[in-house]
Amino acid sequence: MFWQKKKTIGLPSGVLRFRVKVDDKEHEWLADLITLKIAAEQLEQLHNLEKRDNQLHATPEFLGALSDRYCELGCPACDPTQARAVWVAVNRQFWSIEEQLENELLKL
User: Fold this and answer.
1) In the prediction, which pLDDT does 11 show?
2) CA atoms within 13 A on the CB side of 38
3) Other Cβ atoms closer than 10 A to 93
4) What does each of the 108 residues of the chain score in pLDDT, given as a tens digit?
5) Residue 90 burial by CB count (10 A; 0-12/13-18/19+): exposed, middle or buried?
6) Distance between CA 46 and CA 57 in Å, rounded?
7) Phi and psi, residue 58, nearest 5°
8) In this structure, are residues 43 and 56 in contact, taking their beta carbons and an 8 Å threshold?
9) Cα–chain-centroid distance for residue 33?
10) How far is 108 from 65, CA to CA, in rounded Å?
11) Lowest CB count within 10 Å: 3, 14, 19, 102, which one?
Protein backbone atom coordinates (compact mmCIF):
# COMPACT_ATOMS: atom_id res chain seq x y z
CA MET A 1 0.00 0.00 0.00
CA PHE A 2 1.27 3.48 -0.89
CA TRP A 3 1.16 6.15 1.79
CA GLN A 4 1.67 9.77 0.97
CA LYS A 5 2.92 12.23 3.54
CA LYS A 6 0.47 14.99 4.25
CA LYS A 7 1.94 18.34 3.42
CA THR A 8 0.83 21.63 4.81
CA ILE A 9 0.98 25.16 3.56
CA GLY A 10 2.37 27.75 5.94
CA LEU A 11 0.22 30.84 6.07
CA PRO A 12 1.82 34.12 7.09
CA SER A 13 -0.01 36.59 9.26
CA GLY A 14 -1.76 39.38 7.44
CA VAL A 15 -1.28 41.78 10.34
CA LEU A 16 0.93 44.78 9.63
CA ARG A 17 2.32 46.97 12.40
CA PHE A 18 3.02 50.61 11.80
CA ARG A 19 4.43 53.25 14.14
CA VAL A 20 2.67 56.56 13.64
CA LYS A 21 3.82 59.80 15.22
CA VAL A 22 1.04 62.04 16.50
CA ASP A 23 1.89 65.21 18.47
CA ASP A 24 5.42 63.94 19.18
CA LYS A 25 4.10 60.63 20.56
CA GLU A 26 4.42 57.32 18.78
CA HIS A 27 1.35 55.14 18.39
CA GLU A 28 1.16 51.62 17.04
CA TRP A 29 -1.35 50.91 14.32
CA LEU A 30 -2.21 47.28 13.60
CA ALA A 31 -3.94 46.72 10.28
CA ASP A 32 -4.84 43.81 8.04
CA LEU A 33 -2.85 43.58 4.83
CA ILE A 34 -5.68 42.61 2.49
CA THR A 35 -8.02 45.24 3.96
CA LEU A 36 -5.45 47.96 3.22
CA LYS A 37 -4.71 46.51 -0.22
CA ILE A 38 -8.36 46.43 -1.27
CA ALA A 39 -9.02 49.92 0.11
CA ALA A 40 -6.09 51.28 -1.90
CA GLU A 41 -7.14 49.42 -5.07
CA GLN A 42 -10.62 50.91 -4.85
CA LEU A 43 -9.15 54.41 -4.66
CA GLU A 44 -6.62 53.64 -7.41
CA GLN A 45 -9.53 52.85 -9.72
CA LEU A 46 -11.62 55.79 -8.55
CA HIS A 47 -8.74 58.21 -9.24
CA ASN A 48 -7.74 56.54 -12.53
CA LEU A 49 -4.06 56.39 -11.61
CA GLU A 50 -1.73 56.42 -14.59
CA LYS A 51 0.47 53.37 -15.08
CA ARG A 52 3.99 54.07 -16.36
CA ASP A 53 6.93 51.69 -16.38
CA ASN A 54 4.61 49.00 -14.99
CA GLN A 55 3.93 51.14 -11.91
CA LEU A 56 0.97 53.20 -10.77
CA HIS A 57 1.80 56.85 -10.19
CA ALA A 58 0.05 58.56 -7.31
CA THR A 59 -1.56 61.97 -7.54
CA PRO A 60 -1.98 64.43 -4.67
CA GLU A 61 -5.75 63.84 -4.79
CA PHE A 62 -5.29 60.08 -4.55
CA LEU A 63 -2.87 60.35 -1.62
CA GLY A 64 -5.22 62.73 0.20
CA ALA A 65 -8.11 60.30 -0.22
CA LEU A 66 -5.89 57.39 0.78
CA SER A 67 -4.75 59.15 3.96
CA ASP A 68 -8.42 59.74 4.86
CA ARG A 69 -9.24 56.09 4.16
CA TYR A 70 -6.37 54.83 6.32
CA CYS A 71 -7.65 57.02 9.18
CA GLU A 72 -11.09 55.45 8.69
CA LEU A 73 -9.38 52.05 9.00
CA GLY A 74 -7.85 52.94 12.36
CA CYS A 75 -4.66 54.87 11.69
CA PRO A 76 -4.42 57.46 14.47
CA ALA A 77 -3.26 60.12 11.99
CA CYS A 78 -2.10 59.93 8.41
CA ASP A 79 -0.89 62.63 6.07
CA PRO A 80 -0.42 62.06 2.33
CA THR A 81 3.31 61.33 2.75
CA GLN A 82 2.58 58.66 5.35
CA ALA A 83 -0.21 57.30 3.16
CA ARG A 84 2.24 56.84 0.29
CA ALA A 85 4.68 55.03 2.59
CA VAL A 86 1.92 52.68 3.80
CA TRP A 87 0.72 52.15 0.20
CA VAL A 88 4.22 51.12 -0.91
CA ALA A 89 4.75 48.89 2.17
CA VAL A 90 1.39 47.17 1.67
CA ASN A 91 2.12 46.43 -1.99
CA ARG A 92 5.59 45.09 -1.25
CA GLN A 93 4.31 42.90 1.59
CA PHE A 94 1.42 41.65 -0.53
CA TRP A 95 3.70 40.53 -3.35
CA SER A 96 6.17 39.02 -0.89
CA ILE A 97 3.40 36.89 0.62
CA GLU A 98 2.18 35.94 -2.88
CA GLU A 99 5.69 34.75 -3.73
CA GLN A 100 5.99 32.81 -0.45
CA LEU A 101 2.64 31.11 -1.10
CA GLU A 102 3.66 30.22 -4.65
CA ASN A 103 6.84 28.61 -3.30
CA GLU A 104 4.82 26.66 -0.71
CA LEU A 105 2.46 25.40 -3.42
CA LEU A 106 5.35 24.25 -5.59
CA LYS A 107 6.49 22.02 -2.71
CA LEU A 108 3.22 20.06 -2.70
Assistant:
1) 78
2) 6
3) 16
4) 445 456 777 778 899 999 998 899 999 999 999 999 999 999 999 999 999 999 999 999 999 999 999 999 999 999 999 999 999 999 999 999 999 888 878 877
5) buried
6) 14
7) -70, 150
8) no
9) 5
10) 42
11) 3
Q: What is the dihedral of CA 76, 80, 82, 87, to 10 degrees?
A: 110
Contact yes or no for 46/58 (Cβ under 8 A): no
Instruction: From residue 95, give the alpha-carbon distance in Å to each of 46, 76, 91, 92.
Output: 22, 26, 6, 5
Question: DSSP class of residue 9?
Answer: -
96 within 8 A of 37, measured Cβ to Cβ: no
49 within 8 A of 57, measured Cβ to Cβ: yes
Residue type, 16: L
